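All the exercises in this workshop are built on plain-text protein records. A learned vocabulary of local backbone shapes supplies the integers on the structure line. Once this layout is familiar, the rest of the handout is easier to follow. An example says more than a description, so a record of this kind follows:
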Amino acid sequence: MVGDIVAALLENGGIRSTTSPVLYLWKDSGRVLRRIEIKTLEEFLSLFGVGTYQVYIENPEIDYVDSKRFKVNSLSIVTRYLGDGKWSEPVLQTDEEEVTRDFSRDFKAKATRRAARIAGKVQGTLTILSILYEAYKIIRGIRG
């Protein structure tokens, strides 16, 4: 399952969950935007390319964001693969009240700092996924 691969890569970056993350590809067919769940490595290798991807994680625990482990109910990461191993800046989404328990004046600064740290962890995972795909293309002799 591709979720197990994504989970191992995320865990290496300090993002853990008791359930496997789910990887989606967003396909735009002109009038309809569809979300396709990518379950197997074969599906990933056949579908991967320039496009918008989402990683959804339930109950993640994230190391090295604060002085202690940071927990939220869910984390959704949406980013666009631009090709040649390049990804857009990921957009993170979770319940706002769980980004920080402190609703004081530094709420926005704390939320921004946390988002930047989490995004950095996710970028590493996405880069490894694109390298995996590029290696697959070389092995299979696929061009483009």
Notes: Residues 97-101 have pLDDT under 50 and may be disordered. The chain has four helices and nine strands. The beta strands are 15-16, 22-28, 33-38, 51-58, 61-62, 70-71, 74-83, 86-87, 91-93.
